[in-house]
């Protein structure tokens, strides 16, 4: 599911700017449409995440996939700038399929196995993101290539919708096998979690049957209540760490090609190869999360602290590098530390905040990352006025602040499950 999702999206996204310009849009209009998409993602991710906690993962995931497919279908028939902009609306609001899928995984696996499963999920997504642009670039060479690529992407989403529709059958079979065998191994799906998931789905079905017009208002009220619970909870420091580390990493990549050319005279092609190399290593890091978490005895806080410290050190190494080989060395290990850090921060959010609102927590986390994507280009532009090494140097400072926040709140991170939402 995650592989197909990002494979389809990454086929289309790199070609969108070329397509909208071919429709006669100016650079400013193209930038405004791109910004509006980001703003919709920022505000909708928390709401959709809360909604998935209320109505159930299957219903919300199916709705998001189908509406995203509609957006890419409209993109495939967009022959005007207006239709192009309209096609981005359903995708901007409902393209949270990966976040809901992660919430579903957190419902089904034990807390001990969550980093391993999330790591493999991210690895599969990364493989799709690596292969998608290659296939999309090949298809766009054909006549009407962009339209064909968009229709293929929409078809992939419809295929994913079919897989989600079939998912409850496999869950039920897994649950019945575990109940019969009495198997309590931590490396398999939890029968209790699956039973609770079915119970939640049945409850949601009862709510939906109360009335076609009443049910949406009940859902909206419940979503707002959960969002209020997040706002009143003691989770600000975890989201602050996520924001700081996200901006630090984005600053590292923000002017990478330009900095390589100014500092070492490297062509953009070499920078592209180096970034693809880092993405491939990120896939490997996701597959190695299991042995790494066992090495750390499943202490997510300590693993996050060490990976963040390593990330900070490697960005500093890149900012002060005197040769291209130092850049390659830093990029090699940075692929591992950032992949591990992203997985650990999600696991820590769910551990401290509680699995009962995993969709809400992942939605808020996605909003926090979206804020980072908005802030990072501004900070990069300002710091780059002083030096090509300005953005990564600023990233080092932000990463140090994140490490300081983690050390100050060490007691809370180490005491699992003590922080709960106010409405639970």
UniProtKB/TrEMBL annotation:
Transmembrane portions of the chain: 59-86, 146-167, 235-254, 274-296, 303-328, 390-408
Instruction: Keywords in alphabetical order, please.
Output: Membrane, Transmembrane, Transmembrane helix, Transport
The record, for InterPro entries, names: MFS, MFS_dom, MFS_trans_sf, Tet-R_TetA/multi-R_MdtG-like
- Its predominant location is membrane
Record's Pfam families?
MFS_1
Q: Which domain of life is it from?
A: Eukaryota
The record, for PROSITE patterns, names: MFS
Give the record's membrane topology.
Multi-pass membrane protein
Q: GO molecular function, one example?
A: transmembrane transporter activity
Question: Gene3D superfamilies per the record?
Answer: MFS general substrate transporter like domains (1.20.1250.20)
Provide a GO CC annotation, any one.
membrane
Query: Which PANTHER family would you find in this protein's record?
Result: MAJOR FACILITATOR SUPERFAMILY DOMAIN-CONTAINING PROTEIN 10, MAJOR FACILITATOR SUPERFAMILY DOMAIN-CONTAINING PROTEIN 9
| Family, similarity comment | Belongs to the major facilitator superfamily.
Q: What is this protein called?
A: MFSD9 protein
Organism, scientific name = Chloroceryle aenea
């Amino acid at each position: 599911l995650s592989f197909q999702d990002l494979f389809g999206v990454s086929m289309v996204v790199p070609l969108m700017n070329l397509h909208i310009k071919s429709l006669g849009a100016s650079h400013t209009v193209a930038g405004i449409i791109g910004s509006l998409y980001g703003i919709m993602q920022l505000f909708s991710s928390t709401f959709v995440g809360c909604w998935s906690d209320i109505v159930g993962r299957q219903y919300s995931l199916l709705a998001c996939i189908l509406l995203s497919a509609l957006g890419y279908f409209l993109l495939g028939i967009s022959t005007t700038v207006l239709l192009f902009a309209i096609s981005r609306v359903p995708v901007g609001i409902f393209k949270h399929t990966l976040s809901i899928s992660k919430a579903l995984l957190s419902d089904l696996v034990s807390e001990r196995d969550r980093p391993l499963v999330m790591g493999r999920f991210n690895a599969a997504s990364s493989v799709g993101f690596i292969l998608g642009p290659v296939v999309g670039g090949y298809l766009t060479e054909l006549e009407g290539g962009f339209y064909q690529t968009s229709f293929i992407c929409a078809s992939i989403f419809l295929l994913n919708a079919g897989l989600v529709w079939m998912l409850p059958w496999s869950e039920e079979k897994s649950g019945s096998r575990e109940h019969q065998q009495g198997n309590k191994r931590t490396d398999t799906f939890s029968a209790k979690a699956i039973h609770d998931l079915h119970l939640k789905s049945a409850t949601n079905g009862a709510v939906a049957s109360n009335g076609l017009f009443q049910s949406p208002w009940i859902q909206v009220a419940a979503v707002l209540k959960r969002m209020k619970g997040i706002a009143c909870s003691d989770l600000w420091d975890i989201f602050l760490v996520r924001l700081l580390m996200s901006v630090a990493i984005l600053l590292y990549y923000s002017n990478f090609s330009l900095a390589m050319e100014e500092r070492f005279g490297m062509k953009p092609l070499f920078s592209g190869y180096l970034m693809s190399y880092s993405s491939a290593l990120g896939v490997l890091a996701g597959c190695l999360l299991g042995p790494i978490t066992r090495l750390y005895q499943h202490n997510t806080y300590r693993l996050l602290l060490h990976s963040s410290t390593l990330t900070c050190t490697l960005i500093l190494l890149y900012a002060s590098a005197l040769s291209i080989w130092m850049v390659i060395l830093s990029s090699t290990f940075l692929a591992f530390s950032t992949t591990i850090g992203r997985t650990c921060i999600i696991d820590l959010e769910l551990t401290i905040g509680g699995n009962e609102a995993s969709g809400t927590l992942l939605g808020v986390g996605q909003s926090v990352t979206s804020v980072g994507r908005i802030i990072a280009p501004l900070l990069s532009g300002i710091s780059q006025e002083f030096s090509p090494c300005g953005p990564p140097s600023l990233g080092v400072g932000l990463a140090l602040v994140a490490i300081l926040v983690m050390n100050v709140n060490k007691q809370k991170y180490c005491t699992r499950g003590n922080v709960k939402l106010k409405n639970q």
